[in-house]
Design a protein that fits this description.
The protein is mainly alpha-helical. The N terminus is likely disordered.
Amino acid sequence: MVAMMRELSNRAFIYDVFSDIFYYKLDDESYKEMIEKIKIAKDVFDPFSEVFNVLNLRPKKDYLIEYTTLFLTGLGIKPLVPVESKRLYALMGEKIAMFKLNDIIRFYKSYKLRPKIGDFFQLEVDHVSSIMAFMSYLVSKEGEEGQRVIIDEKNFFISHIYGWIPDWANDVIADERSEIFKPICKALNEWIYIEKDNLGVTN
């Protein structure tokens, strides 16, 4: 685990941890690996300390129940589904949702990436977990790809992270059913605002 972190920059590692957290963890091994990654990450990004404490004190079933309740049932005052096109479809209509979905697919294709097939829990290409994984990938490619990847990082961040995830995370934080994902989404928003400054994103 430590060796893996050394291979990634701190930024790529933090994005990777967020990707892991929002990927539905059914089996015990992958859940334990996620907890271990968060344990390491809290020394890099302090808001993960509260996330680690919450998850470490609760059984895995609490995480799975809350994940299902918040993100898979579709119930609640606001749509909390962690998928960009589905959220935008509910809030802004089909045209904008499809434009965003096609744009994210274009980003992936430009790096010759394809969705992973075969897992029980199949992620949409614009699921929060997929988006965080792609951003981790972009950051890890900075040394190889140079200026191109840095420009893509900024454009992807503006188009598919900063434009909707903070509002979605705030809805999760405000939901009374959110206990485990409240500190997770607070940490996510804090990270997004750090990255906003990192990438020179204005407004």
